[in-house]
Every structure is written in structure tokens, then in C-alpha cells.
């Protein structure tokens, strides 16, 4: 039949039959070139067959194992499905019902919950690879992604590691070696001492040579451990001592290096993509300056700060470095950029980054697909000139954590309700959880990566605002309030950011959105209108009862709403005739000002759309109870209100004040986690500020200190215990 | 009479400002009777009775003018809650039991024979820190048994909601209690001749609940919270729990399904593995009988490993008390829908609204295990520990819902996420269910 329609198709089929792959490709290329001249049915036929062949010609692996969990495992599986690759998921026993397990074609349990026994358990993973005959392994990020031993073991079994080879992983994993390599490749590096610092005196000498301030850091370090900033000789000596101790205990390697400390820098990184044939590309930058405790929170691409020349210079240096280590696969070269656009090489991450989606949005590339192709040995499909910057993309990392405690302490629990804002246009959500999933203490508390895209930055940010307002997360604390504040902050909007953005903007810690007078009126009016809608509904019964129900003729309500320390009298009245059961339009009087509130109050929906004086907002009512306590998420922040009728509010003053628990004499766990150490016993006398115990949760150790001086009455925990948020740890007398 | 509410120890009716006694009450954080009625009933709906009755005590100078108040001691009358008729009384009648729902709200101390007033009603609610219920107060206790005990310890809200099971809920203060009572009232029919009320509902009846597919842990020994299941299937996640702090291994309370009030009974795997014991059986039985008396359909979630073994339970009469729950479910003629989420073992399976007790629709989730007992115990008894592979064989054979489904003990094995939809559909069909029992003066439940 092919012959009848078009000769090209017929010849293709013939070649295909004869398994002459190379010539097939040539014909295909010819067809692609001639595509413009082929017409109608012929074109469709050729296209169909060429697609079919393209699939074969680009075939990579039959089966791929993803040595990871959560959103990144799901992300990789999605691309594998697109490429027709079968997938194998691994999981720990608590993850048996996880989304990545359900998405994959096969799933195998590799051990119990702690990562050391499951996702880092190389023996078990190698066993699974053998059993499932997976031909390749994608490590995602974290876990085994930058583990050269894992890459080596895979290679010895003839399994392809989707990532660079062991040489590149090793070279870039060591801070001293990577810096030397970067220097040789003519990449700008931070002025500093390349070798190992022997003692404190030498440290001081080197520090003086470089010029203060300097940073002393562990060669093997990461995540801020073993890092000290010194502004003078004394601090250098001290920093040397502390850093070497910390480096020895954390990494078993006390080698230190000293370099110039770049004050108030931006963190900008270049995505590179290289193949095994010596080709390398830079896929533009990502701005990742919004961080807390050295962890990124908001990322975007491109950066507002870079001009085309700087971008090209950074890109070319990144590519030079990649070529110098014979890098293949996707990688990221991180730079610190100072206020005069001087940039310095920081480190290279030899894996797929968490924030890769923003690059994908502006370049149109699927990085996972490219990584898989490159690992199979295909040359890159693109040239540097083909890499565009289309529009703007912003990514927010949505974490299960309480942003009011040092910008985010982990929270755990079951996602009782979860709804991603996918109905908002140009939104991408990379997540590995669903309604009902557990956020446990064992793994990273990230819920998802929320990415919005727009033709320009303003549009992307506007969509992010909307997406954050439309994101339903219930059952665990989350950082939506912080994210929403950051993206509307004037400094962020202007692009005036640095890695110190959060501590500079919120020196006393994040306290949530500050309502303006207008916003407060809007919130109060919305809450009052919602209350009246609820009251009206509770008077509507279906069917005809034996005893007739007295119909309320009320058309106005006098309410009193408490918000924070203020009590606000509010009058709600029916606005004309539009008081149908569903559409509620009301006039609400707050502080003597009249507001018009219109909404279709669907009280069962987690998202409520309301229009106040022409401004449309999406709010969420998180909870309510019979005595008027209501929690409303408004502009990202959750506000506690108590809505009562005027009568009830007046009588409230006769209610007894319940004595609050004296919190200074008890110590409760601020977050769920494991008790690492308890340093007191009953009968001990502790002074204010003394460490009582240490709680570890999600990679972080937190020292719990006494709030006052006193005698220890009782200790309710011991080292090794698992504690929940709010659990009583220690009581003082 | 359609509904009797008790506001025990009401205080004088006149204006707060004019009365010394009112002021002293205020310092205890209590409202006057009139203020309570203002909060409880719809505005301007109260019609008062017997306003001019005075006390007739003449001893110890009680008949002097300063100790006389018109309308003293009680306020009674009729009013509306969300438009529906309610009577406010201080004395009710045993004959009304099962005719109209009766609720007592204890808002002050209540001692001696007076405590039987609330005890005879269907539900007793208390106000924390300001209300007490006891037969004899701490002074008498001290003189008779030499026990030192405070009012709060002896008969406070905490004691009665968590230890004795006399009261069904406790609230923070008068206002919280009255506003909650208004909300609770909306769940109840006005009498045994009225159907359970159907409210306007915005929550779609065919809503899928995906989280239920993963709520039961993979390891069958691991606990989960039955309240998670109840909240996620109920309209707007609202559940009015009855006796939340007493016998917590069983959960009972009211919710709505597609607007219609239902009574929910569920084993709570989080507490004592959800086993049935004396207290939980009695708690469940009383609730089931209330629902049956007032036409409220029953939805039962089963995850029960059995009755709690041991001498304490046997000596306490678990047979007699367990029989109450069995009796209550068996005699109930309201629509009965049962969902087996996990374990349904032995006699406890039978008791929990099984098909054998005239269940209308009995479903099992794929995680259900309907068997005489757990694999380990069964294998020990059958093989006396001689058979090594027997446990795996038993698990294979019985730790799934199929044997029960094949025998017709469950009507279907359903995808957990469709549970809400199934229940709503069934309730629609069962709304017209009538079932009559043979004539009797009354049944003889094993009390």
C-alpha cells in the first residue's frame, strides 16, 4: 500500500524489512529535507512512517530503573513513558503506596524506611537491577546521584548510569580538585588558596594574602557544614579550629581551604548539557538566590541580573569546564555573582538539579530525555544557536514545613486534602504525592515544585500568585505563605535579590502577610459574608416536615468579628433582590465603610472565589466550628478569626478566661523528629539558654534550650525516641 | 412536645444589672437563663411558660421577700432553632424517651437525685470547669468513705466524658456549648415520626475519595485513624462525634451523606487496635439504639480484631455487655450499610452490623480480612505449632475478602475511593425502607 501512496514510504518499508537501519535514516533525512515539497496524503503517509522509524532510530533502553523516590522519580518516569521505555521503581516499605510506585511498570521494595537501608542501599538496588534486567539507572538528585562508587558498580555490571562517568563525578565532588580543574580551564574562581591549609598560622597568613573577609570551608563539605566566615586574624584562627573539628566529625576528612568571601552575592547557575562525543551546550542560567539555610526556595530563569554578554561569558566558561572533565549528560555549574557582575565558579553539580524545570520551560528541552539519549551514546541534537530564551519561568519549592519557625521547620502528617492548581494556565506541578499521602520524617519534606511560565516575568509572577492561592494543601503545615510574600515583595519584583534576601527582608523571622487597612476590610467582609451564607444554609431543609419550619425573614445581621487583637463590628445586609440560595451578594459594613461582597459560596469546595468591591480573590476556609472560630487562607497567609453575632460577642466578656499553660517551665518538641541526645536528668539544675536535648529531623539537628533557670522535674524522652510536634520533652520545676 | 432541652440550674430571669445573684453567677463565668435562651434559640422565637411560678419553701426564712423571685429556678418554653421547633424544659418524662430526642446541657452543679434528670435523656453535654454531676458531693464522700476528692475530680466534665461515660461531650464555656447545641440540633429529627432531616448539600454525592485507596497500611498490624476515613467520606468533612474521649476504641457520631443525617459507628484501630470491650460495646449500643429510634440510617466501618480477652473483661461481663451491641444492631430497622475496611474477626465481626444481622448493604474493601481469627492465632490452635507453612496458607486463604464474598456475607468488594458514592446511592434507595417487628411491649435488651 505504501507503494501506491508514495515511493519514499515504500522504500522505507523495504529497507526496514531488510533491517538496513543506516539507509533508513538517510531516507528519513531526505524526507525531512523535502518535507516542504511533499504534499497531501503522501505527506501524511511519509510522516507516519517516519515517526514510526524515528522511534526505532532513537531507541535507547528497553527498561530503566529509577533509583530515587518522590517527585523526581515521577518526573523521570513521565519522560520514560514518552520515550517508550519500561520503568522500574524502587521503594522503601513505607513508600509501598507512593505515587512513583504506582506510576512505574514494576516496583520493588529495597528495604525499611531509613534511607541508609533503602534508597542508599546499593546492594539491594544492584540486586533489583539484576532481577528486573534493567539496562540503565537514572539516579535523580540526592541519594546515589553523585556517588562514584554506585556509578562504578553499575559500570562493572554493564548497566548504564544516566549521568556523567565516574571520573567527572569524582573530579567535581572534591572542592579542591574541582577548583584546580576550573582554574586550568580558565574559569573564574574565587581568589583563594588552592591547597590544603596545614595549621592556624598558615591560615592567617593566607587570609591576609587574599584579603578579608575570607571563608574557611571543608574540602569535602556541603550543606553549610564546616564553613566559617572570618573578618580578622582572630576569627581566622577560631574558624580554622572549628571548621577542622566539624569537617573531621561530619566527613571524616579535616582538609580545609580558604578563599575570599563574596559578601551579599547572588547564586546563579548555568545548565550545561554534554554528550560523549565532545559536544557541550549551555542552556542559559537559573537565578537561585532566594535561599534559607543554604537551601533554595524560589528559582527562576532567566535571571533579571544578567546581560547577554555576562550570560555568554558564564555559559562559555561552564562549557569549557564541562569539556575539561570530559563531561557527558546534564550538569550544573554554580556561580556566585557579585554586584558588579563579576562571577566566580562555586561548584559543579554532576546531576539533574531540582530546579531543572525552569530551564525546560524557557528552552523547550526535556532534560531527562536528553540525559537518556546522551547516556545511550547519541550525539546532541541541538546547536548552541538553537537554544532560545522563550519567556520567563519561576519555580517555588512547596515544602511541608512551618515558615514561621526560622523560615521553615519540617512538618509531617497525612495530606488530608490535596489539589494542585492545574486549572490555572501555564502551570506545571512536579510532585510525587497525592491526596492521602504521608509526609514522613524519613525523607525530604518537599511537597512539590510549582512552576509558572509567562511571556515575561510579570506574567509568570502573576500566575504564580494565582497558582499559590489555588493550591489546596491540608493536613500538614506548608510554606505557601512565605512563597507568596516573596514573589510579591517589591525587592523581589524589581530583581533586587541576593542569597541574604530572607534574613534581610525578615530580620525578626517571617511573620506572615501584613494586612493593609483595605485588605483587612476585605478579609473581614469576606469572613462575615461567608458566615451569613453558612447560617442561611443551615436553615434550608429539603422535603416537607410535619411541623412546618419557620422561614427566617431576616435581611440584616449584626456581627462581631475578632481578628488578632481587634474586635470589629460588622453589619451585613441583603443587596437588593440577588439573595438567591447560591449567588450571595451582600453589602458589608466594616469600620463604617460599605463593601459589596459577591460570591457563589459553594461551602463544600476547598477553594472559594469571592469578589469584594470588584476585586476577585480566591480564598480557602481551612476550618470552622459552631462557636465561630474560622481559619481563612487569604493572600497566602492563614488568619484566625472568630465570628459571632453581636449578642454572643457581648456575652463573651462574661466567659471565664482559661489560664494558658505556662510554657517557660516545659519544653515541647517544635517539630516531629528523632531525639539524638538528652543532656539533662531529673534533679539537674539548668540555666537559661542551656542545651537540654537535641532533636534531629530531616537532615537538621536542633538544639533545644531551657527557657528559664530551674531544676529539671521530669524528662519525658530519651535518645533514639521518635517525637511528634508538640510532644512534651522536659519539665522544669 | 417535640424536643426537650434541659438547661439545668437556670438562674433568675430579671435583668443582669439589677440582681445581686446574677452578679455572683457572672463571676463564675456563667450566663443567666435568659441569656442562654437568647443564644440557643432563633431571635424573637421564644414563647415562655410558667413565668410567674415561685418557689414554695418557707423554712429558714426562704419565704422572706428578698428570697423570692418570680420565675425562680427554671425557665421553660418553646422556640425555634434554625426555624425548627424546640421545647426548653427542666423536667422531662421517661415516657418521652424514644418519642422525641432529649438533650441535657449541664451548665452548673447538679447533685443528688437531680442527676437522673440528665441521665434519662438521650444526650448529656457539659460545660468544662463550671458544671458538675454527682450523686453525693465531696463533703459527703469525705464523711462516709474518708476519700479526699474535689468537685472537678468527682463529677467534672472531664470525669464524665472520659472516665464514667455519663456525659457525651464537653464544651469550653456556656457560649461554645449553646452554639454547638444549635448545630447538633440540625442533625436530629423532631420526633420518632419524622424522618432524619435533609440539609442542602454542596458536596457532590458521587465525589471520589482517592486517599481512601491508600489509607489502610500495607502491614496489617499497623494502626491508622478511622476518623480520617469518616471525615473524608462525610459531607464537607463534618462529623459531630459523640463521646470522643470515652471508650475511644469505638467511634460514634453524626454526619451527613448527600445532606441526609446518618449515624456512623466505626472501630478505631488507633486505640487498643480497635477491639471491642465492655465500655465500647455499651457506647456503641446506646448510639445505635438512638439512631434506630429516630430513623437515622447507620453506617458502620469495621476493623475489629475481636473482643478484648482477659479476666477483667470476662468478670466484668463482656458477654452481657457485648450482647447489647449485638442486640442493638440486630433489632435496628433503619437502613444499615457496613464497610469492612480491614479486620473482621470472629464474634466481633458478627456484632459489627454484619450481613447476618439484617445488614442492607455490606461491602468489603480489598484489604478486608473476614475470618474467625488472625492467621497466627488460628494456626496455633489448628496445628499446635507443628505446621511451618500453615500460617502463609491461612493468610492466603482467609486474609482477603473473597471467601466472605463467595458465601454472600459481603455484597461486593469495592474500590475504597468509591465508598462515598456507593453509600449515597444506597441511602437514596433505602430511604423508603420499612421493616416491622412482631408485636411486643418492648424488647428485653440484656441490660
Automatic annotation (TrEMBL), chain A:
Keyword rRNA processing present in the record's keywords: the answer is: no
Q: Which domain of life is it from?
A: Eukaryota
Q: Name one Pfam family in it.
A: Biotin_lipoyl
Q: Which SUPFAM superfamilies match?
A: Glutathione synthetase ATP-binding domain-like (SSF56059), PreATP-grasp domain (SSF52440), Rudiment single hybrid motif (SSF51246), Single hybrid motif (SSF51230)
Alphabetically sorted, this entry's keywords are: Acetylation, ATP-binding, Biotin, Ligase, Lipid degradation, Lipid metabolism, Magnesium, Manganese, Metal-binding, Mitochondrion, Nucleotide-binding, Phosphoprotein, Transit peptide
Domain named ATP-grasp: residues: 179-376
Tell me a Gene Ontology molecular-function term this record carries: ATP binding
Q: Which GO terms describe its biological process?
A: lipid catabolic process
Q: What PROSITE patterns does this protein map onto?
A: ATP_GRASP, BC, BIOTIN, BIOTINYL_LIPOYL, CPSASE_1, CPSASE_2
Catalytic activity from the UniProt record: butanoyl-CoA + hydrogencarbonate + ATP = (2S)-ethylmalonyl-CoA + ADP + phosphate + H(+); propanoyl-CoA + hydrogencarbonate + ATP = (S)-methylmalonyl-CoA + ADP + phosphate + H(+)
In this chain the Biotin carboxylation domain maps to 60-507
EC numbers: 6.4.1.3
Domain Lipoyl-binding intervals? 658-733
- Does the record carry Lipid metabolism as a key word? yes
Gene3D superfamilies from the xrefs?
A: 2.40.50.100, 3.30.700.30, 3.40.50.20, ATP-grasp fold, A domain, ATP-grasp fold, B domain
Record-linked InterPro entries: ATP-grasp (IPR011761), ATP_grasp_subdomain_1 (IPR013815), BC-like_N (IPR005481), Biotin_BS (IPR001882), Biotin_carboxylase_complex (IPR050856), Biotin_carboxylation_dom (IPR011764), Biotin_COase_C (IPR005482), Biotin_lipoyl (IPR000089)
Per the record, the pathway is: Metabolic intermediate metabolism; propanoyl-CoA degradation; succinyl-CoA from propanoyl-CoA: step 1/3
UniProt-annotated location(s): Mitochondrion matrix
Cofactor(s), names only, from the UniProt record: biotin
**Its principal location?**
mitochondrion
Oligomeric state and interaction partners are given as: The holoenzyme is a dodecamer composed of 6 PCCA/alpha subunits and 6 PCCB/beta subunits. Interacts (via the biotin carboxylation domain) with SIRT4. Interacts with SIRT3 and SIRT5.
Q: What is the name of the protein in this document?
A: Propionyl-CoA carboxylase alpha chain, mitochondrial
UniProtKB/TrEMBL annotation, chain B:
> What residues does the CoA carboxyltransferase C-terminal domain cover?
204-441
Q: Which Gene3D superfamilies match?
A: 2-enoyl-CoA Hydratase, Chain A, domain 1 (3.90.226.10)
EC numbers: 6.4.1.3
Q: Give the record's pathway.
A: Metabolic intermediate metabolism; propanoyl-CoA degradation; succinyl-CoA from propanoyl-CoA: step 1/3
Annotated PROSITE patterns? COA_CT_CTER (PS50989), COA_CT_NTER (PS50980)
Which GO MF terms are attached to this record? propionyl-CoA carboxylase activity
What is this protein's name?
Propionyl-CoA carboxylase beta chain, mitochondrial
| Name of the gene this protein is made from | PCCB
Cellular component per GO, a single term: mitochondrion
What is the reaction catalyzed?
Answer: butanoyl-CoA + hydrogencarbonate + ATP = (2S)-ethylmalonyl-CoA + ADP + phosphate + H(+); propanoyl-CoA + hydrogencarbonate + ATP = (S)-methylmalonyl-CoA + ADP + phosphate + H(+)
Q: Which organism is it from?
A: Athene cunicularia
Q: Indicate the enzyme's highest-level EC class.
A: ligase
Q: How does it assemble?
A: The holoenzyme is a dodecamer composed of 6 PCCA/alpha subunits and 6 PCCB/beta subunits.
All copies of domain CoA carboxyltransferase N-terminal, residue ranges: 1-200
**A UniProt-annotated Pfam family:** Carboxyl_trans
